[in-house]
Design goal:
mainly alpha; two-stranded antiparallel sheet; 2 helices
């Protein structure tokens, strides 16, 4: 069962990393990570998921010329 990540989840993970704690408690569950490195990878993944698609460029516009 996949759950949606929230900014609160990211904040809790950042706080645990800062404190050097491997266990993070969320609203309905807790996770104990194997290492800070694993937590950093989870944090990077969570941030990426919250950011959405990497291709967020504005739509392209093209100039149109008319021969008269």
């Amino acid at each position: 069962m996949a759950t949606s990540l929230t900014q609160t989840d990211v904040d809790r993970l950042e706080k645990a990393i800062t404190r050097g704690v491997l266990r993070v408690e969320y609203a309905d569950h807790s996770v104990t990570y194997q290492s800070i490195d694993k937590m950093m990878k989870a944090l990077a993944y969570a941030r990426q998921q919250l950011a959405g698609p990497a291709d967020r460029r504005p739509p392209s516009t093209y100039a149109v010329f008319d021969r008269e």
